[in-house]
Amino acid sequence: MKALVALLASLSMIGTATADTIDVQLINFSFVPANITIEVGDTVRWTFVSGGGHTVHEGLSQFPTPTTAFGASVEPLFPIFEVTFDAAFLATFPRTGDFYDYHCIPHFPGMSGTIQVTDNTTGISFCSGDGGDQMGCTNCPCSNNAPQGTVGGCVNSASTSAQLVASGNASVSLLPGMSSDLRFQLHGAPPAALCVLTSGDALAPTNPGNSCTGQDSGLQSSLFDGLRCAVMNVRRHGGRPATASGDVGVTTNPWGGEGGPNAGIAVAFGGFASGQTRYFQVTNRDNSALGCMRGLNTSQAIEITFTP
Ligand SMILES: [Cu+2]
Q1: Dmax over Cα atoms in the chain, in whole Å?
Q2: How far is the CA of 60 from the centre of ligand 1 (A)?
Q3: Residue-number span of the structural domain to which 71 is assigned
Q4: What is the 22 CA–ligand 1 centroid distance (Å)?
Q5: Which residues keep their CB under 5 angstroms from ion ligand 1?
Q6: Where is the domain boundary, 96, 118, 140?
Q7: CA 265 to ligand 1 center in whole angstroms
Q8: Distance (Å) from CA 55 to ligand 1 centroid
């Protein structure tokens, strides 16, 4: 009963907006991790660990100017500094591509880092594990629906819902390896789980005899604790381990963008054509002793239509 109460308590938090805090540590003479990708509304929290008196100053000029977006000393007496990259901040301190360089003044140029802020607006989400766009079509396999309205997969062993986020430009003519390319991040996976991005031509189910066909709901599969969303001519776009906080692509390589795979996902040589529509979904490992005990779960799906 206690476990059930805890599960219900955590379920009630899934539907809220996901403004995350991303930690960067100041260790000796480095920012760890140095290069991060966040979403609009997220907060970056720098924390002193070691190495003497540091600062965190925006830009690549050693000395701050009146237009420097943020700056503070981060040292044993003032060990924490936070900046929230919300819409107001981006409007006040605009930078090309919402990309912010920063550095430590005493240890410049060796001690520096970057923040890519993404707008989280590329593509359209379908097939969430919240009971379906048409309620009851389709429910998660073992009463593990996320709360209605959740954007993400069926509830997993971490009592979270894996949410796939697309950002960047779905152009088929960009060169590979750019952070402006189409990229995918994941939140809410089980800690350290292997996550594989796939894409297909259609949303399941596609059988005309299935009453859920055309409801954008997905389909139960005996393989998953979640729903199968992306089907037909399925391609895999690489595996990534989730971090201890269940993310992919925030402090680690995303799918696409500068994180690869080498050919990119949209881009020239990615194998997709302008005007083509694909549905992307992540399949992730899960604890086979928990949930529906199938050892795999899924995110929701994102529809992407490629552009010239
Ligand atoms: Cu420093």
Answers
A1: 68
A2: 14
A3: 21-118
A4: 19
A5: 54, 104, 107, 111
A6: 118
A7: 37
A8: 6
**194 CB-near residues (< 8 Å, 6+ apart):** 239, 240, 241, 242, 284, 285
Q: Could you tell me if 171 and 307 are in contact, meaning their C-beta atoms sit under 8 angstroms apart?
A: yes
pLDDT tens column, 53-75: 999 999 988 777 888 999 999 99
Please give the distance, rounded to the nearest whole angstrom, from the Cα atom of residue 105 to the centre of ligand 1. 7
Q: Tell the burial category of 233 from Cβ atoms under 10 Å away from its Cβ (0-12, 13-18, 19+).
A: exposed
DSSP 249: S
Interval 197-234: pLDDT, tens: 999 999 998 988 888 888 878 888 889 999 999 999 99
CB 110 within 8 Å of CB 117: no
Ligand 1 centroid to residue 82 C-alpha, Å:
16
Tell me how many domains the chain contains: 2
Record the tokens describing residue 246, joined without a space.
């269940």
